[in-house]
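Hi P.,

Sorry for the delay on this. The queue was packed all week, but I finally got your sequence through. Input first:
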Amino acid sequence: MKFREGDRVELILRSKKRVGTVEEVYNDTQKCKVQIDGFPVTVTKPQKYLVKVEGSELVVVPQFVADWISHRRQEGYNLIWSISYENNDMPDEVYEWLTSTADNQELFARAWLDGYEVEKEPLYYVKLPISKRNEATDELEVINMCLLLNIRSRETCISGNYRWVDKIKRTDWRTKLTEAEIKGMPGGDIYWQFAVLVEEADGEDNE
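Then the structure:
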Protein backbone atom coordinates (compact mmCIF):
# COMPACT_ATOMS: atom_id res chain seq x y z
CA MET A 1 0.00 0.00 0.00
CA LYS A 2 1.34 3.41 -0.97
CA PHE A 3 1.12 6.31 1.44
CA ARG A 4 1.27 10.03 0.74
CA GLU A 5 1.73 13.10 2.87
CA GLY A 6 -1.64 14.02 4.38
CA ASP A 7 -3.08 10.49 4.41
CA ARG A 8 -5.18 9.66 7.46
CA VAL A 9 -4.06 6.37 9.01
CA GLU A 10 -4.78 4.06 11.91
CA LEU A 11 -2.09 2.36 13.99
CA ILE A 12 -1.59 0.67 17.33
CA LEU A 13 0.32 2.76 19.87
CA ARG A 14 0.74 1.78 23.50
CA SER A 15 -1.79 -1.02 23.06
CA LYS A 16 -4.49 1.38 21.78
CA LYS A 17 -5.75 2.14 18.30
CA ARG A 18 -4.84 5.68 17.30
CA VAL A 19 -5.59 7.84 14.30
CA GLY A 20 -3.10 10.28 12.80
CA THR A 21 -1.90 12.11 9.71
CA VAL A 22 1.11 11.11 7.62
CA GLU A 23 3.64 13.95 7.62
CA GLU A 24 6.52 12.36 5.72
CA VAL A 25 6.99 9.17 3.71
CA TYR A 26 10.37 7.42 3.70
CA ASN A 27 10.11 5.00 0.79
CA ASP A 28 13.75 4.00 1.12
CA THR A 29 13.08 2.52 4.57
CA GLN A 30 9.35 1.80 4.03
CA LYS A 31 8.40 3.96 7.00
CA CYS A 32 6.14 6.97 7.62
CA LYS A 33 6.27 9.77 10.15
CA VAL A 34 2.79 10.17 11.64
CA GLN A 35 1.33 12.98 13.74
CA ILE A 36 -1.03 11.34 16.24
CA ASP A 37 -4.31 13.15 16.85
CA GLY A 38 -4.41 14.78 20.27
CA PHE A 39 -0.68 14.40 20.95
CA PRO A 40 2.04 17.03 20.35
CA VAL A 41 4.48 14.36 19.14
CA THR A 42 5.13 12.33 16.02
CA VAL A 43 6.02 8.66 15.65
CA THR A 44 7.83 6.88 12.84
CA LYS A 45 6.35 3.50 12.00
CA PRO A 46 6.93 0.85 9.32
CA GLN A 47 4.30 1.21 6.62
CA LYS A 48 3.14 -2.38 7.13
CA TYR A 49 1.76 -1.35 10.54
CA LEU A 50 -0.35 1.49 9.10
CA VAL A 51 -3.88 1.26 7.71
CA LYS A 52 -5.46 4.04 5.67
CA VAL A 53 -8.65 5.47 7.10
CA GLU A 54 -11.38 5.02 4.52
CA GLY A 55 -13.55 8.03 3.89
CA SER A 56 -14.45 10.81 1.51
CA GLU A 57 -12.00 12.21 -1.01
CA LEU A 58 -9.25 14.27 0.61
CA VAL A 59 -9.08 18.01 0.05
CA VAL A 60 -6.08 19.49 -1.74
CA VAL A 61 -4.07 22.27 -0.06
CA PRO A 62 -0.85 24.15 -0.95
CA GLN A 63 2.42 22.92 0.53
CA PHE A 64 2.70 25.93 2.87
CA VAL A 65 -0.71 25.09 4.37
CA ALA A 66 0.36 21.46 4.86
CA ASP A 67 3.56 22.70 6.56
CA TRP A 68 1.50 24.96 8.87
CA ILE A 69 -0.87 22.14 9.86
CA SER A 70 2.09 19.87 10.56
CA HIS A 71 3.86 22.54 12.61
CA ARG A 72 0.79 23.41 14.70
CA ARG A 73 0.01 19.77 15.42
CA GLN A 74 3.56 19.20 16.63
CA GLU A 75 3.23 22.23 18.91
CA GLY A 76 0.05 20.75 20.40
CA TYR A 77 -2.39 23.40 19.16
CA ASN A 78 -5.98 22.68 18.17
CA LEU A 79 -7.86 23.67 15.02
CA ILE A 80 -9.37 26.86 16.47
CA TRP A 81 -6.01 28.31 17.52
CA SER A 82 -4.35 27.25 14.28
CA ILE A 83 -6.89 28.97 12.05
CA SER A 84 -7.18 32.13 14.19
CA TYR A 85 -6.18 35.34 12.39
CA GLU A 86 -4.88 36.74 15.69
CA ASN A 87 -2.14 34.12 15.72
CA ASN A 88 1.06 36.19 15.55
CA ASP A 89 3.11 33.17 14.46
CA MET A 90 1.00 32.54 11.36
CA PRO A 91 3.08 32.97 8.16
CA ASP A 92 1.89 35.76 5.86
CA GLU A 93 1.22 33.36 2.99
CA VAL A 94 -1.07 31.23 5.20
CA TYR A 95 -2.91 34.33 6.44
CA GLU A 96 -3.39 35.63 2.89
CA TRP A 97 -4.61 32.23 1.71
CA LEU A 98 -7.13 31.91 4.57
CA THR A 99 -8.51 35.43 4.16
CA SER A 100 -8.70 35.40 0.37
CA THR A 101 -11.96 33.41 0.41
CA ALA A 102 -14.25 31.81 2.98
CA ASP A 103 -13.92 28.53 1.07
CA ASN A 104 -10.28 28.29 2.11
CA GLN A 105 -11.26 28.39 5.78
CA GLU A 106 -13.51 25.39 5.21
CA LEU A 107 -10.73 23.63 3.27
CA PHE A 108 -8.33 24.20 6.16
CA ALA A 109 -10.80 22.75 8.66
CA ARG A 110 -11.46 19.70 6.49
CA ALA A 111 -7.73 19.20 5.96
CA TRP A 112 -7.12 19.37 9.70
CA LEU A 113 -9.94 16.99 10.60
CA ASP A 114 -9.96 14.52 7.70
CA GLY A 115 -6.47 14.68 6.18
CA TYR A 116 -5.32 16.24 2.92
CA GLU A 117 -3.36 15.94 -0.27
CA VAL A 118 -0.62 18.42 -1.11
CA GLU A 119 -1.10 20.48 -4.23
CA LYS A 120 1.58 19.73 -6.76
CA GLU A 121 3.47 22.95 -7.38
CA PRO A 122 6.53 23.47 -9.58
CA LEU A 123 9.70 23.16 -7.51
CA TYR A 124 12.90 25.10 -8.08
CA TYR A 125 16.53 25.11 -7.07
CA VAL A 126 18.06 28.52 -6.43
CA LYS A 127 21.53 28.28 -7.97
CA LEU A 128 23.71 31.21 -7.01
CA PRO A 129 26.86 31.97 -9.06
CA ILE A 130 29.72 32.51 -6.61
CA SER A 131 33.20 33.72 -7.57
CA LYS A 132 36.02 31.65 -6.10
CA ARG A 133 39.76 31.79 -6.62
CA ASN A 134 41.27 28.59 -8.00
CA GLU A 135 44.34 27.95 -5.85
CA ALA A 136 46.00 25.88 -8.58
CA THR A 137 45.74 28.53 -11.31
CA ASP A 138 45.33 31.62 -9.10
CA GLU A 139 42.39 32.65 -11.29
CA LEU A 140 38.82 33.51 -10.43
CA GLU A 141 36.21 30.96 -11.44
CA VAL A 142 32.44 30.89 -11.04
CA ILE A 143 30.76 27.97 -9.32
CA ASN A 144 27.06 27.38 -8.62
CA MET A 145 26.02 27.16 -4.97
CA CYS A 146 22.52 26.12 -3.99
CA LEU A 147 20.29 28.01 -1.56
CA LEU A 148 18.82 26.00 1.33
CA LEU A 149 15.76 27.02 3.37
CA ASN A 150 14.81 25.77 6.83
CA ILE A 151 11.02 25.44 6.69
CA ARG A 152 10.69 25.77 10.48
CA SER A 153 13.04 28.62 11.39
CA ARG A 154 13.06 30.25 7.90
CA GLU A 155 16.87 30.42 8.09
CA THR A 156 18.84 30.17 4.86
CA CYS A 157 22.30 28.97 3.91
CA ILE A 158 24.16 27.95 0.77
CA SER A 159 25.95 24.74 -0.09
CA GLY A 160 27.86 23.37 -3.04
CA ASN A 161 26.81 19.81 -2.15
CA TYR A 162 23.07 20.36 -1.90
CA ARG A 163 21.98 16.79 -2.68
CA TRP A 164 22.77 15.70 0.89
CA VAL A 165 19.46 17.31 1.90
CA ASP A 166 17.51 14.87 -0.28
CA LYS A 167 19.32 11.94 1.31
CA ILE A 168 18.70 13.11 4.88
CA LYS A 169 14.92 13.33 4.64
CA ARG A 170 14.28 13.93 8.32
CA THR A 171 15.83 17.38 8.27
CA ASP A 172 13.86 20.63 8.07
CA TRP A 173 16.19 21.98 5.36
CA ARG A 174 14.92 22.08 1.78
CA THR A 175 16.62 22.78 -1.55
CA LYS A 176 13.53 22.17 -3.69
CA LEU A 177 11.39 25.25 -3.15
CA THR A 178 8.14 26.69 -4.47
CA GLU A 179 7.92 30.14 -6.02
CA ALA A 180 6.10 31.41 -2.93
CA GLU A 181 8.81 30.08 -0.60
CA ILE A 182 11.56 31.71 -2.64
CA LYS A 183 9.85 35.08 -2.96
CA GLY A 184 8.85 34.99 0.71
CA MET A 185 12.49 35.13 1.87
CA PRO A 186 14.28 38.41 2.56
CA GLY A 187 15.71 39.33 -0.83
CA GLY A 188 13.41 36.77 -2.44
CA ASP A 189 12.88 38.77 -5.63
CA ILE A 190 16.63 38.65 -6.24
CA TYR A 191 16.80 34.92 -5.47
CA TRP A 192 13.93 34.31 -7.90
CA GLN A 193 16.14 35.50 -10.76
CA PHE A 194 18.39 32.48 -10.14
CA ALA A 195 15.59 29.90 -9.81
CA VAL A 196 15.83 26.83 -12.03
CA LEU A 197 13.12 24.18 -12.39
CA VAL A 198 14.16 21.00 -10.58
CA GLU A 199 13.37 18.84 -13.62
CA GLU A 200 15.57 20.97 -15.86
CA ALA A 201 18.46 21.09 -13.38
CA ASP A 202 18.37 17.35 -12.72
CA GLY A 203 18.21 16.69 -16.45
CA GLU A 204 21.34 18.78 -17.03
CA ASP A 205 23.17 16.94 -14.24
CA ASN A 206 22.36 13.57 -15.84
CA GLU A 207 23.62 14.54 -19.29
